[in-house]
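Protein 1 of 2
SEQ + STRUCT:
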Amino acid sequence: MKILNLYAGIGGNRKLWGDEHEITAVEFDPAIAKAYQTRFPNDEVVVGDAKQYLLDHYKEFDFIWASPPCQTHTAIRQCKVDCVDNPRGKVDAVFIDMSLYQIILFLTHNNPNSFSWVVENVMPYYEPLIKPSTKIDRHSYWSNFNISVIAVVKDTIIEKTVMADCDFNLTGYGIKRTQQVIRNQVNYETGKHILDCAMGTVQHKQGGLF
């Protein structure tokens, strides 16, 4: 299957996908992209703008995964801005990043049912402008195929694993906010589960010939 992995980060969602697929990953930060390439040497890694790449190439793939930035949607934003007794500390006022909804709407209305797609983000502090298709753990998923809900090991396990160098060592890449990059990963098992659901949909559309 040809897969497009947008806003790839260091590839938590991709960790258990294996190497039998043709995967293109797009990441804006060169240091993070370099770490991803080392972690998944068989993938094609593009350093660039995910939305522009999607616009130019979306028809070329069987499955598209997008994880646009979540910082402006996260629950920490529900706290009062600059409140002195805010238990989460000072929170600056920001506009939400509309890339999340731009991508959902683009994939929804520019898909001739020839490919499967999923958009992942945190559960937002506000009522979502577009209702998610599925919620797993603390993440929301919008998709054009059915994703069954599963119980997953908490994401903190991922952080402990990577920081202990049992999985992947980020030292030496010049990545800023290393712990945040690690925490931004999708749970490995969830990533595999969603791909398996997508593969079932693609196989059905292609009459089991995939």
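Protein 2 of 2
SEQ + STRUCT:
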Amino acid sequence: MKKRKKYSLIALALAGLLLLAGCSSKNLTSSSAGFWNQFVFTFARIIQWLSFGGTVAIGIILFTILIRTVLLPLMNLQIKSSLKMQELQPEIKKIQAKYPGKDMASRQAVSEETQRLYSENKANPYMGCLPVLVQMPILWALYQSLTNVSFLKEGSFLWLNIGTKDPYYILPVLAAVFTFLSSWLNMKAAPERNNMTLAMTVFLPIMIFVMAMNISSGVSLYWVISNAFQVFQTLAIANPFKIIAAREAKVQAEKDRLKAREKALKKAKRR
């Protein structure tokens, strides 16, 4: 039930974004009608202002980092909430195994014990979802500004023509690599993994690579910077290697405690 509600919230947000996308003009200008169009165009103006020396690519890089930095508190909240929920999954499975029946009484018992578990651990299954809902319109507006505003499709940077696809496919490769690393790092710390998560870790980078091969270099550059930022953000906020080490240390400490207790009991018996 909780998962269904969570997915319903995400589906509602996606539907809202699709509606906004349908209302958005393909060639946005300062005179384009509608709040969403003006919101997207404001993003384009900020990118233009950050384009030092008239280099749009620099504006894209700086604004992407700026947006990601502003969203950092929300991402921090999302990551910590997701980690807490991951840690509770084994306990939730024990509760479900305790009440395997499909009748109303069993479902009610599972729900009550799960809620008690959340309460005791100060966990909220929706906290990992709400930050995503806030971020999606902002990131979507950034994406639309790069695809629908003409002055962000002009200019060159290094080997790139911002308005056309990367001729050497360097950006598509980097976008796919950083997307994979981001998904892999998020998955690595999970105590349990499922086939869907594993499939998405492989499928999403492939999808990003194929899309980046056929889209403007400006959008590809945004994907590279955004996903690279997310990789470093994960390593800084929720480093999976540190999480795994802490988890193993906790398990080892419990084993050592039990061994010490057994030794103490054996000594007591000898006396």
